[in-house]
Write a structure and sequence with these properties.
Elements: H1 2-19, E1 24-29, H2 32-42, E2 49-50, H3 53-63, H4 70-76, E3 82-88, E4 94-101, E5 106-114, H5 121-136, E6 141-151, H6 158-174, E7 178-181, H7 186-196, E8 207-215, E9 222-229, E10 235-241, H8 248-264, H9 273-288, H10 293-306, H11 311-321, H12 331-350, H13 361-383, H14 387-415, H15 431-447, H16 454-478, H17 493-499, H18 501-510, H19 514-520, H20 526-541, H21 550-564
Parallel strand pairs: 1-2, 1-3, 6-7, 6-8
Antiparallel strand pairs: 3-4, 4-5, 5-7, 8-9, 9-10
Helix pairs in contact: 2-5, 4-7, 6-8, 7-10, 9-10, 10-11, 11-12, 12-13, 12-14, 13-14, 15-16, 16-18, 17-18, 18-20, 19-20, 20-21
Length: 574
């Protein structure tokens, strides 16, 4: 029996191990011959799932994205566990490969290559294998280079110091225990998290490094003071390097070994979340003071990557991302809008008790801009007789309207969460309900119009307007002493005539309910409003006659108005 139980447990363990998903790697960058050679080298690996090069190339061509544009690349691929980003020097005789964890932005490998690109294939594949082993390490030594200071350094030495600093980082990563926080890629990791609707909290680095370079006995001599602190700010190790440029390889090897071995000999510490929060706070403050939209987005994405549960940072990220929607006449703007909607849904799920509007002003402006900019491009193409472009933009217009139809109920629901738009007609129509409903009509339909189909826009507005009139009529019948309270209502003819005169005319010609309702209602201004609308229709029909029929139409309107409202022309006039 025990043997049978052991066998079952063994089979279950094996099945679980077999079912565990393999880590996924995305190879990005250039040169293409090295990417292809590396793909072939890694294709036989049983411990790795490789995103197909053909798939990557196809996506790049379809979206016209450069191979080194990592900010755009990450939006186009399914979630990956690791990125390997290859770059090539301008002379095509050298390059670099960075491998980093897509879940937490820690660099796992940093390898340089020279000469024939494909000759480095084996070395790069070996570095990727090393990175895979590092990902499986449950107790890595994590570093973050918090500061690099140069004290009285001759400016002619800066280039040599930059090179030394890069070699020092590579020396750290050569140790199998070490992972290094890739600050420059935090925005990329956050993009990946947004795309896949997954959140990976970035724990604070286990140790913070400060590198202080200072001049020695002469300008040619540079010494290094290497300070290591724990996340609580306590110094745990201090190392000195003298004349570090004299024998850089020897100096770097010694410093790296003393640093890592010294830390391994100390008691292990758990990452402190407070440090990550402090780092995120600094990034958020930088975001607030950054004027350039793209740079601001990168800063807030980095803050969110460090603190994905912070409501303020997540909300700011949504508002900042809205700047990506400005792609006039291009389908990319609509793609970005859908990604932004996914971010809003994720925020709504993560913070159901928030008092913030899910659809902020910047988000609604970005959504509304899709239609207005596309309409401008259509008119531009029509003026230039660009028939093919007109067809493409017309289809995009239909796609934008489909997106608007999807989000309009969500925006309406979100607006009613807030006091200035809240209304409830269950117990009748109060003055507050009427005021809030009018405010809602103005904001939703005219301030940020989420309609590309203008006929739908006119119809929906007047449908909502009729709902308010019906509530007023019920209140008048229920409480006649308020009769004068709803003596007149304003219809926004100017908005319709400015933005949708043709669609407004079509509505008035085809409408079978709204005008009939106005004429048959008990509201004191109902028949007056109906007369106004029918007169507007006459004027629109005869607009092409250069005013020949306008005077008779207006005279007829005044005569009928006086018959309906005998006192309308008496009393004070302005």
């Amino acid at each position: 029996m025990k043997q049978l139980l052991a066998t079952i447990l063994l089979l279950l363990t094996a099945a679980t191990a077999t079912a565990a998903p393999l880590p996924r790697l995305a190879l990005l960058g250039e040169p293409p011959e090295l990417l292809d050679a590396l793909t072939a080298e890694l294709s036989d690996r049983t411990n790795l799932e490789l995103l197909a090069r053909a798939e990557i190339a196809l996506v790049l061509r379809e979206h016209a994205v450069a191979a080194d544009d990592v900010g755009q690349l990450v939006k186009l691929f399914p979630h990956t566990d690791m990125f390997a980003l290859l770059t090539q020097a301008w002379n095509k005789k050298s390059g670099r490969m960075l491998v980093f964890n897509a879940r937490n932005s820690f660099r796992l490998a940093d390898v340089a290559w020279t000469g024939e690109a494909t000759a480095a294939t084996a070395d790069l594949a070996q570095a990727i294998d090393s990175a895979l082993r590092k990902m499986r390490n449950q107790t890595p030594v994590c570093f973050s280079i918090a500061a690099v200071r140069r004290v009285a350094i001759d400016i002619r030495q800066h280039s040599a110091l930059d090179d030394w600093n890069l070699r020092f980082e590579r020396g750290l990563l050569a140790r199998p225990e070490v992972q290094l926080l890739e600050r420059e890629r935090l925005g990329m990791v956050s993009e990946e998290r947004t795309l896949t609707n997954q959140a990976f909290a970035l724990a604070a680095s286990g140790r913070l490094l400060t590198l202080e370079y200072e001049t020695g006995d002469s300008a040619a001599v540079i010494n290094l003071k290497l300070l290591c602190h724990d996340p609580g700010g306590r110094e745990c190790l201090r190392l000195l390097g003298r004349d570090i440029l004299k024998n850089p390889e020897e100096t770097i090897t010694r410093l790296v070994n003393e640093l890592v071995d010294g830390l391994l000999a100390m008691p292990a510490i758990a990452p402190v979340a407070a440090q990550a929060q402090e780092e995120a706070k600094k990034l958020y403050q930088t975001y607030q003071n950054t004027g350039h939209p793209e740079e601001a987005l990168q800063k807030i994405q980095a803050a969110v990557a460090l603190a994905p549960d912070n409501e303020t940072y997540r909300y700011a990220e949504i508002s900042a991302y809205a700047s990506n929607l400005f792609c006039p006449g291009k389908p990319e703007g609509l793609l970005e809008a859908r990604k932004l909607l996914a971010m809003i849904r994720a925020f709504q799920a993560d913070f159901p008790g928030t008092t913030l509007p899910y659809f902020s002003t910047s988000v609604l402006d970005g959504f509304a801009g899709l239609s207005t900019t596309n309409a401008y491009r259509i008119n531009e193409a029509l003026a230039r007789n660009e028939d093919e472009k007109v067809l493409l933009l017309t289809q995009l217009s239909k796609d934008i309207e489909a997106f608007y139809a999807e989000i309009r109920p969500l925006v309406r629901q979100d607006m009613r969460r807030h006091p200035q738009y809240a209304f409830d007609f269950t117990d009748g129509l109060s003055a507050r309900d009427a005021k809030n409903f009018r405010h809602y009509l103005h904001e939703f339909y005219f301030m940020r119009r989420l309609y590309d189909d203008l006929e739908t826009w006119v119809r929906d507005y007047l449908s909502d307007y009729q709902l308010l009139l019906q509530q007023m009529e019920r209140e008048n019948l229920r409480r006649p002493y308020l009769h004068l309270k709803y003596w007149e209502m304003f219809l926004p003819y100017d908005q319709f005539l400015r933005h949708a005169p043709v669609e407004f005319r079509h509505f008035l010609e085809r409408d079978q309910t709204f005008l009939d309702y106005l004429e048959s209602s008990t509201l004191p201004f109902g028949r007056v409003n109906a007369l106004e609308l029918r007169t507007v229709l006459k004027l629109l029909k005869n607009a092409w006659r250069h005013g020949d029929q306008m005077t008779p139409a207006l005279m007829s309107f005044f005569a009928e108005l006086e018959a309906l409202w005998p006192d309308c022309f008496t009393g004070d006039t302005v």
